[in-house]
Amino acid sequence: MTNAGKSATFWENHYSRLDDQWGTRPNAVLKDLVTALTTAPGTALDLGCGHGGDAIWLATHGWDVTAVDVAQTALDRVAAGARATGVSDRVHPARHDLAESFPEGQFDLVSAAYFHTPVDIPRALVLHRAAQAVAPGGLLIVVEHASVAPWSWQAGQDVRFPTPAESLAALHLGDGWQTERCHAPQRTATGPQGQIATVTDNVLALRRTP
Ligand SMILES: C[S@@+](CC[C@H](N)C(=O)[O-])C[C@H]1O[C@@H](n2cnc3c(N)ncnc32)[C@H](O)[C@@H]1O
């Protein structure tokens, strides 16, 4: 099986077993960044959207969102959630294996929130491509795990996470970007069985200069 097939298989299996309400709430860090760093809604690209908590929240705040995932089961739930919320005209689910293909166009906001996978994919290249999809004046948001939650597939493993500065450097942005956020805040997270833990995120918010 190719890695493309592996991503679809792994994540379809994941979502087919998952409570369809898990991940339907927006990530607090995404909400805070969008509220603080944007002045008006525009077009948004949500990479690895999962059950669409972020995509639907953005749409309810006026954004026109392309919501991308490799798992059709997740995308079907995003579409259903958008219909139920009355924003299906502003949420466009799109299936891509981002290691293989990427949506066309440029967007005022490109977000990759916890775009992690146990499948071996060229993640840094995907995030570099994500930066290229940001329109002038637009924002790139990357939020990633910087600690292992007890319910993570990495629990018990000795994982070394990059620092925020290392994650920023790995994007190879070049000139024409302003760093709005590059830090590693802690937050309280809730696991699938309701477990509570303090975790750390790497948070990058980068504005493409007009
Ligand atoms: C850890 S989940 C995060 C989901 C969501 N962004 C959130 O914050 O809850 C990672 C997501 O990336 C998606 N994904 C993983 N590999 C992918 C790939 N190669 N192409 C597109 N999506 C992928 C998964 O299906 C999953 O929905």
From TrEMBL:
Organism: Streptomyces bluensis
Pfam families: Methyltransf_25
Database matches in InterPro entries: Methyltransf_25 (IPR041698), SAM-dependent_MTases_sf (IPR029063)
Protein name: Class I SAM-dependent methyltransferase
Enzyme class label: transferase
Domain annotation Methyltransferase: ranges: 45-138
GO term, biological process aspect, one: methylation
Keywords (A to Z) from UniProt: Methyltransferase, S-adenosyl-L-methionine, Transferase
GO MF term list: 2-polyprenyl-6-hydroxyphenol methylase activity; 3-demethylubiquinol 3-O-methyltransferase activity
UniProt cross-references to CDD domains, sorted A to Z: AdoMet_MTases
